[in-house]
C-alpha cells in the first residue's frame, strides 16, 4: 500500500501543478453616463406661433435701416421640473444676405427686407444661430422669453411682396 501511495503522489502532484496553473487577471470596467435636466413643456401659444406685422409700403423703406414698428411676443415654457433651473433657446434660420445679423425673408416675395429680432427691452439683438438664456421661475416653474421683432431693410431698396420667414427654436435645459 505504501508503494501504491508513493506512485500515486507524483501523479497527483503533476495534476495539481497542471490544475493549479490558472490565469487570474484583474480588470476595471469604466461606466459613464450623464444626468441632464428634464424638459419643460412648450406652451401651446408658443408652438407654431405667428408674429404678424402691419401692412408696410415699400415707399416707406427708402433708407438703409428703415424699420417697421416693433411687435412684442413671448416664448413660454411651463411645468419645468425642479431640477431645471435655466432654459437656453437657440434661434436658427436663414441669415439675410445683406446683413447676416438679421433673419432673411426666406419664404416671402418682397426683396430688400429682413427680420430683426431682439429681447423685449431692445438691449440684446438675436442673430441667426444666436442663443438666449433665462432662469426658470422657482415658484411658477415657468421660463419666459420676452421678445420683439420688426421688419428691417439693410439696403433701402425694397420691392413689394409678402414678408415671411421661419425661425426654428431649439431649447436646452440646465
Task: Summarize the topology.
Layout: H1 2-20, E1 41-42, E2 71-78, E3 86-92, E4 103-104, E5 114-119, E6 125-126, E7 130-135, E8 143-152, E9 168-173
Antiparallel strand pairs: 1-2, 2-8, 3-7, 3-9, 4-5, 5-6, 5-8
Task: Please provide a written account of the structure.
With 174 residues, the chain is mainly beta. The protein has a domain of 101 residues: Immunoglobulin-like. It contains 1 helix and 9 strands. The chain starts with a helix and ends with a strand. One of its GO terms (biological process) is cell adhesion involved in single-species biofilm formation. InterPro entries: Adhesion_dom_fimbrial (IPR000259), Adhesion_dom_fimbrial_sf (IPR036937), Adhesion_dom_sf (IPR008966), Bact_Fimbrial_Adh_Pro (IPR050263). This is Type 1 fimbrial protein.
How would you classify the helix and strand content by structural class?
mainly beta
Overall 3D form:
elongated
Q: Level of helix content?
A: 10-25%
Mean pLDDT: 89
Q: Summarize the main sheet.
A: 6 strands, antiparallel
Distance between the termini: 81 Å
**Low-confidence runs:** none
CATH superfamily of the domain at 62-156 and 168-173: Fimbrial-type adhesion domain
Summarize the structure.
By secondary structure, the chain is mostly beta strands. The protein has one helix at residues 2-20; strands at 41-42, 71-78, 86-92, 103-104, 114-119, 125-126, 130-135, 143-152, 168-173. Helix content is 11%, strand content 28%.
Structure keywords:
single chain, 174 residues, mainly beta, Immunoglobulin-like, six-stranded antiparallel β-sheet, 1 helix, 9 strands, elongated
Amino acid at each position: 500500500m505504501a508503494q501504491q501511495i508513493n506512485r500515486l503522489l507524483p501523479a497527483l502532484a503533476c495534476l495539481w501543478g497542471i490544475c493549479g496553473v490558472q490565469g487570474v487577471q484583474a480588470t476595471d470596467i469604466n461606466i459613464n453616463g450623464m444626468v441632464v435636466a428634464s424638459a419643460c413643456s412648450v406652451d401651446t401659444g408658443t408652438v407654431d406661433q405667428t408674429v404678424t406685422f402691419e401692412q408696410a409700403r415699400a415707399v416707406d423703406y427708402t433708407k438703409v435701416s428703415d424699420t417697421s414698428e416693433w411687435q412684442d411676443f413671448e416664448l413660454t415654457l411651463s411645468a419645468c421640473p425642479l431640477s431645471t433651473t435655466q432654459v437656453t433657446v437657440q434661434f436658427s434660420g436663414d441669415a439675410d444676405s445683406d446683413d447676416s445679423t438679421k433673419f432673411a425673408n426666406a419664404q416671402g416675395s418682397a426683396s430688400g427686407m429682413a427680420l430683426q429680432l431682439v429681447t423685449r427691452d431692445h438691449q440684446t439683438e438675436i442673430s441667426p444661430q444666436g442663443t438666449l438664456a433665462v432662469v426658470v421661475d422657482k415658484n411658477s416653474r415657468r421660463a419666459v422669453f420676452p421678445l420683439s421683432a420688426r421688419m428691417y431693410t439693410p439696403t433701402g431698396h425694397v420691392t413689394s411682396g409678402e414678408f415671411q420667414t421661419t425661425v426654428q427654436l431649439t431649447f436646452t435645459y440646465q
